[in-house]
Amino acid sequence: MPTSPQTLTEARRLRDHFAAQGAQVVKADVLQPAETLLDLYGEDIRARAYLTSDPLQGEMVLRPDFTVPVVQMHMETHAEPARYTYAGKVFRKQEHDETRANEYVQVGYEVFDGQNPAKADAEVFAVIAEGLAGLPVRAATGDIGILTAAVRGLKTTDARKAALLRHIWRPGRFKALLKRYGSGAMPATRKALLAADDPFADAGPDIGLRSRAEVSARIDALRADGAAAPLAAEEIALIDALLSLRETCPNVVSALGDIAVDMPAIGAAVDRMTARVDALAARGVDVDALDFEGSYGRTSLEYYDGFVFGFYASDRPDLPPVATGGRYDALTAQLGDGRAVPAVGGVIRPDLVLGLNAC
Which CA distances in Å does 193 have to 181, 189, 190, 220? Predict the structure, then answer.
């Protein structure tokens, strides 16, 4: 699908705006190795990305975003601190929403700087906001790091914590797991399986890709889970309180301080948010009017692990976000063979900016 000249002009304007902040202009191949994305997100990515097979390079994917290839490039250079900007098309399937484009231009700004993460968060948010200056947009923020800290602090098994962390970006599944871990209930079919002295007695011949040893290990894990004590109702209530937060940033900081009294595991994450709010204020952001949502960012790509934000058309709730971004420290560790670099970035859609300018 051809991109309009107006969109390309706006993309160049935004890229130049980011470059003026000291960002290096970089490019990324349209075709990316699918193996990297599959390793990061599992087979679920197949439902959202355009995959193809190359006889020499193997399975490839049309670029679903720029962050992964930019991180890979940065981790190879070892340059730090560093800032990058880029502009180009991304490709994503929209199976459940025919009104949304499956290919569009993104312009991004990425900061790799561990000297002051709160200041870097504020920088990216403010620079994105400056690129949208004068447009009828509202901002929303969140912090995935607070929820992950809360999950890691739960008084339950490591296996249950791992399952909850894995499903943070699937709110329905996360809620169902919390409910099950709190009730101690078990499906009748699973109860019958675990009660059998020999679950393989009437199983018949082995079929499928899993070996009998793998199935046996899974059954042992289910037995261990069944023997675990239920999650305390008080802990579940605290998680619900975190997810239900929806207020301006200063009020949320105050509420989080109260929750941290009963859930000290989130203390460090709350301190990071407090520092970020101060840094945003120092950048001229009106934090007293900046919204925070406890569950914000949980349906985005799964590499965000801290501060998350988005800008939306004030009077057009039907439109996708005009800009989004967040912190992704864990992604750099995954792509850097364990060497993590604090990183935060954001993207703007120039086509949507043009639409709002025309309003």
Answer: 19, 6, 5, 11
Q: Which of 229, 258, 287 is the last residue of a domain?
A: 229
Count how many domains the chain has: 2
How far is it, in rounded angstroms, from Cα 71 to Cα 300? 18
pLDDT (tens digit per residue) in 166-201: 899 889 999 999 998 998 777 777 766 666 666 676
- Distance, in Å, from the CA atom of 18 to the CA atom of 82, rounded to the nearest integer, reads 13
Pair (178, 191) in one structural domain: no
- Label the pairing between strands 343-348 and 103-112: antiparallel
Q: Give tens-digit pLDDT for 295-349.
A: 999 877 678 999 999 999 998 888 899 999 999 998 898 888 778 899 999 999 9
Q: Is position 283 within any domain?
A: yes
Residue span of the structural domain in which 274 resides: 137-184+232-313
67: which 2 tokens?
Answer: 């962050």
Find the DSSP H helices in the chain. 5-19, 34-41, 67-77, 117-131, 144-152, 158-166, 171-183, 188-195, 212-227, 233-244, 249-262, 267-282, 329-335, 350-357
How does pLDDT run across 140-163, given as a tens digit for each residue?
Answer: 999 999 999 999 999 999 999 999
Is 150:266 a contact under the CB 8 Å cutoff?
yes
- 143 in a structural domain: yes
Paired tokens of 173? 């599944």
Is residue 171 assigned to a domain? yes
Indicate whether 206 and 299 sit together in one domain. no
Residues near 246 by beta carbon (within 8 Å), at least 6 away in sequence: 291, 292, 293, 294
Question: 354 in a domain, yes or no?
Answer: no
What does the pLDDT average to over 111-138? 96
pTM of the model: 0.88
Same-domain pairing of 308 and 197: no
Same domain for 257 and 210, yes or no, is: no
